Every structure is written in structure tokens, then in C-alpha cells.
Predict the structure.
Amino acid sequence: MDNELLQQFFEGDTRALARIITRVENRSADSLEILQQLFPRTGKAEIIGVTGSPGSGKSTLVDRLAVSYRQKGKKLGIIAVDPSSPFTGGAILGDRIRMQTLGTDPGIYIRSMATRGHLGGLATATADVVSVLDAAGKDPIVVETVGVGQDEIEIVKLADVSLVVLVPGMGDDIQALKAGIMEIGDVFVINKCDRPGVDKMERAVLAMLSLAHRAGGWQPPIVKTSATKGEGIEELVETIGRCQEFFRTSSHRIQKKREAARQRLMTLLEERLVNTALQKVFPNGELNRVVDEIAERRQDPYSVVEQIIKSSTFGRS
Amino acid sequence: MDNELLQQFFEGDTRALARIITRVENRSADSLEILQQLFPRTGKAEIIGVTGSPGSGKSTLVDRLAVSYRQKGKKLGIIAVDPSSPFTGGAILGDRIRMQTLGTDPGIYIRSMATRGHLGGLATATADVVSVLDAAGKDPIVVETVGVGQDEIEIVKLADVSLVVLVPGMGDDIQALKAGIMEIGDVFVINKCDRPGVDKMERAVLAMLSLAHRAGGWQPPIVKTSATKGEGIEELVETIGRCQEFFRTSSHRIQKKREAARQRLMTLLEERLVNTALQKVFPNGELNRVVDEIAERRQDPYSVVEQIIKSSTFGRS
């Protein structure tokens, strides 16, 4: 392991931070060891999840939140998870523009993560990057995601407080709200609140909230913002603070942390076990041949898995 | 394993089919053995993926496609993957209504899958259910998903032909199109084509397609439909057929099948290895205690994983 790099990281060097994140994201050989070294310094940051459809203005909202937290003397980490381009990779233009506006402030560290190529899944990679930022003393850490896929929901589960960003007049209101997000939102933000349809959207949210089962006894508030105009931001920051305070002592939060720990452990186990088994059973890359045989239907994957488990000493008990 | 059940399944018994799907979905003890038995009978069905936002009318469209395929004498399987309610489970109302209209036709088998509780992920569970329907002689098998999360993209990769359903006037057109779907669509459907904004949507799709990198040499056509009125359905069926024909002989398809085989193998390996290791290392459920210790930050997950790997004979080589 690169002790000099860790040393620089602990001294607060931003380039060391960036390099460590890259290693962790790419699952380089020493990445788990690095995370192990950082672990004692983690667990302090408040994690704020922000989710919303494309076009809901959530990036602008996050930028406004960032400015407000900076004014309160906080050092932020922002992780923009961008699942929009799983087949091409690369940061999207919007993020590059953002990094030019906020990125000059050394108190804000912004990282974009594309979906592509995360062994163990995007949620794991995001959890690891959160850990690194946490160890680097960033607090709060804002994790921004699009949409409502299972991956995004896993990511939102990392958060202590989850914001769902809605926009008035969003297509079929109820349909848009249906998709799982009512149950993950701790705070609902109706952004672009200068547009028509705010009251209708608010009623739709309230109606859905009255139906949804909610754990933990927190009644999610609705905050109206106009991120581009900077309206409602302080109220939102204050609301996030109340929610953090509420959950800090709740059994719901303990349960959530436990679920996150289990998820983390399972994903790490999968990754390490599969890698170890494949290295052992197919030391010379015979895996590709076996994959071809399955694709050509000359073998079935179930039998192959049993063979791998038997061939690793693992199966012999 | 329940040989009588398999026997009934092979005789075409629908209740046996339903029970086998349930076992496979729930990962019951004999599920992998069942899949192994079914494997020789799979690989024949054409798999059609249908993805689109909530409100795009894709369920109605799938129903219309089903009727058309039925008229051509085909026996269909329809899998409606519903990631909308990950925390509550259960089929949504819409699917129950559908099953009343189409479900009386023994030539159509409809199954709803919620996100909740699929060990190994929703994509794996969907792949397994596709295999069961394939072995039951359903062809084509239509897999219908919402949205553009990573999970949905994995599901779409199962398909031989992927339809992306759009609606004119959908929010910010470009934003909605951005999200990865341009690269997974083989056929673009502009549904609700009696609404204003069809030309604008068509231009947006064409513009995005001209930018997107496409493998395999297929130029995705755009088909306009009005599912509620039954318009454009035959053209869509014909277009799907052309696309199937195009890919049947393409190297792109071989590559896609290879990727699917690799994915399948890896997920099965993860599942079996983790289960075997946990049973061996924590035979009496000590896993919960370890998870608690991680949640309370008394242990770090990285060290726990190393301990598990060492404690299973697996680590000793």
C-alpha cells in the first residue's frame, strides 16, 4: 500500500483525496486496505441524499445548498451519481460546468460518478467514496442521484436524510410519484415553485404520503424552492437539520445503519469470494472459454457454478 | 426435487408453471436444480424488452402487442417488472386489472415481479423467470420495465429486441431521452401519437440517435402508435420482426449473448459462494451479531470479510 499517499490524505491534501477516490472507484489492488485504514476516521459526516428526475433542477438545488452550508463554515463533499450514460462513461457536460463554478472553492469537493464499470455495483462504489470523503472530514456529504431504479434506492439508503425533488406539472403527477420515491423521501422539495401547478403537486404529495407506510415516526415536510432564484433554500437547510436531529436518536436510524452494514458486508463478500474462486479455478483465464460454452448453450451455468464451487477447496467440508 | 411438479410443468400445466416460477423467484432450495433441468428446453424464445417512463402507456402497448401475437397463433409470456414499490411489495392495481382482461386467454401467461426481496438482484430473478417461460414454450416473451436504472438496463440486456416507449411532450424532451435509453433501444415507439408534439419528439429522437454510438449496424426505426386506439400496432410487430431477423445472424447478437452468459454466471457464483461461506463460517446465525458490530463501528467490514475468507477453507490454498 502507498503509505505516502495515505499520509498526504491525512494531511488534507486534495490531490491525494482525488487519487484515493480513483483507486477506490477502480477497485485497485490496495483499495480495500486503504478503506480499512480510513475506517476509524469515518462515521462522523451527515449524509444527505438528493434524488429527482432529470430536469427537476436538483443539481442547481444542490449547488445552492452547498453555498448555504459553506456560509455556515461547513466543508462539503458532493457526489453526483450519473447513471445516464452507462455505455459511454465519462462526466456529463453539466458537471464540468458545475465544477467550474463551485470547484474553485477548496471547501467543496465535487466528484461525478458514472455507472459504468463498478465491480460490485454502483451503490457499493458510492458507499466507498462516501467513506473516503467522510474520512477526509467532509460534512455534510451530499449524494445526488437521478431516478428511482433499485441502484438509486440502494444509494439513497446510505443517506441519513433523503430529499426527493419534484417539479410542478411533472407529466402525470401521480404516476411520477408512484415510483417508490414516496417511501424513501424524508423531505419533499417542490422546486421551480414559480411554475404553475405547485398546489396541485403539493396535494398529490400529501395524498401519497397519507397512503404510504412510513417507518420511524417522522412526518415528511414539503419545502417549496426556486433553486435558480435562490428561494426557499434556507428553509430547506433548516428542515434538513430538523430531520437530522429527529433521526439522530431514533431506533429507525439504528435499524437503517444495521441494514447498510449488512448490505456493505454482503457486497464485499461477493466481490472477494468471486475473485478468489475465479483466480483459483481459472488461473489462466479459462473463464472466457466457459462463458462462450454457456453462451453457445453447450453447458448450463448452474452446473458450471457447482463445478467451480467443488473445484475451489471451498466446497470440500 | 419435486419430480411430479416438473412432470406437470413439462405436460404444459399452467399451475405447475406458476409454482415453478414462485420457487425460482423465492430461490427455494431446489430452484437451481429446477433451472438446470429446464435448461435444455430453453433458448428458443424471442425476448422483447419494453421500457418506458411511468405514464408512457407501455402496459397498454404490451397488451395490444399480445393480442396481435395471439392472432398470429403465438403463445406469449409477459413479465411486468415493477420496481415502483420496493418497500411494500405486492402487485400493483394496474396489473390486476390487466390480468383480468388478458389473463383469461390460456395462450398468454402474465407475471408481475416486484423489486422486493430478490436475492441476487432483480435482473437475475427476471432472467430466471424468462428461462422458465422459455422452457414452457412461450414465444415471444415480453419483459416490461419502468425507467432507466442500472437494474432495468441489465434486464433490457436480456432482450433480443428492446423497445423504448416515449410520449410526445414528455417533460424536457432531451433530458428524458438522455438517460441511457438511447443506447439500449432497438426500436423507438412514440406512443400516444394523437397528442401534440409528435414531430418535435421524433426530431429529438433522431438527433439523439445521430449522436449515440450504436453497435451492430442496426439503425433503430421510430414507430408511432396509439395503443389505446390500437393504431400502429401491426407496423410495430412488423418492425420488431425485422429487427429480430437482422440480429439473428449478427455478431453483435453473439456478443450480447456472451455478455448475458457472463453476467448470469457471475451472479449465480456470487449467490452460491456467499451462501456457502456464511453457512460454514456462521452456522448458528452469528452473522447478525457481526452486522451489529459493523453498524456500531466496533469492527470494520473489510477486516470481517478477510476473516470470513480465512475461516472458510476457501482461503487456505
About this structure: The CA atoms of residues 108 and 271 of chain A lie 32 Å apart. Strands of chain A lie at 47-52, 76-82, 108-114, 141-146, 161-166, 187-190, 222-224.
